[in-house]
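User: I'm curious whether this sequence folds into something compact or stays loose and floppy. Could you predict its structure so I can see for myself?
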Amino acid sequence: MLTTTLRSKIDSLWDKFWSGGIANPLTAMEQISYLLFMRRLDATDRKREEDAKWLKQSYTSIFDGTYTAPDRRDYNKGELRWGHFRHLPGDDMLTHVRDRVFPFIKNLGGEDHAFSQYMHDAVFIIPKASLLVEAIGIIDDIYIEIERERLDNGQTFHDTQGDLYEYLLAEISTAGKNGQFRTPRHIIQMICALVDPKLGEEVCDPACGTGGFLLGAYQNILTRHTTPELRQIDENGMERGLVGDRLTDERQWKVLRDRSFYGFDFDTTMVRIGLMNLILHGIDHPNLGYKDTLSKRYDEKDRYDVVLANPPFKGSIDKGDINEELKLKTTKTELLFVNRMINLLRIGGRAGVIVPDGVLFGSSNAHRNLREMLIEECELQGVVSMPSGVFKPYAGVSTSVLVFVKSGQTEYVWFYDMQADGYSLDDKRDKIEDNDIPDVIKQWNQRNPAKEKDRKARAFFVPVQEIRDNKYDLSINRYKEIEYDEH
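Assistant: Here's the prediction. I'll summarize afterward.
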């Protein structure tokens, strides 16, 4: 939803980092996050100060008093504001931000600053004064443009600021270790529409990365609480309304922003980027943590109403470190994470997960045991088969979405053969007309086992006994009938 002006400014920010010697996109993203956090800290503090004045309440700024920097000298905290250091000459600015401002934000701590709780091993590595000066100038320009957008087009500040960060994240186009890569936003939106998280429910992503699924859940709830006239159909054909004007009680907002979204990742860089992503979208107190949710050190279970994830596909974990509560005898993370998701759900809780297609038909005992678990210990509601280019340029692997309820009873499984997601299925992923996602959501909401028996159709039901007879095979090709053209 960003304007061309904003996109070109963000592109130039990336270019500056690239030419300034920070070529790794993940490292650049982290450094940009620190600068955005510094700017946001100043802006938020000023806003709270103004609000307090307006309401005739007292407010103590986080920039009041003095700060003892690592060089053992005391500085006026007011000098640590973005509004102060942005005017300094280049070399002075670099020294000041690196040696005083950065250590200050690293040690803010306290429950008000989740981001700073994960800053203990963070390092400020912008090497040149010229790069810092240019980056700060572009970020200021970006925020002036966001404010103009807000005034001219009524876009909410959080919405545009969030879109800005999402656009920045789209540039992280290299797969991480253990097969980590970002899930495209429109795929997240589709899964959130299928699972439909609701206000008051606790939502978890046990492999949260940059926080995309938690954001998708937040935006799904906001859309449900936005008057239909204020909703729009976005570029991916999905309804989106982020005003939340039907949330009229401040307590509802507090529950939504403080006690609804929980995520874990075993990569601290990802946790920091994910925290920043949620904060910039208006979730002031994200509950993100640094944990390997497959390991013995993680002990949550029967805890969440909704679990959403796109776990790493190619990872494996050291056998001795696997949590004993995971019943599957395997070291494959794509299987263990689904087992973890089942354990995390409360009875009646719902899940949506992306799995590589091998999970649906793999012949090992662990593969089959997981599918049996989904059918016999859960209500497996749906399997959406996605085209193999969805994760390009990161990976060409074919994937599917599984939607299930813990401890329900599976009678029929709904299958959908998705052929197009609105983007070309090559490395370029250009926007195209063909897009099955709106139809996936529409058919899902109208699904009826008594009617959908035509196996040549996009969507159809398969009775559970047939799946049992096929050794719990869940691949769509096992059940779909191909219509041959006689010509």
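Summary: The chain is about 40% helix and 15% strand. Residues 174-180 have pLDDT under 50 and may be disordered.
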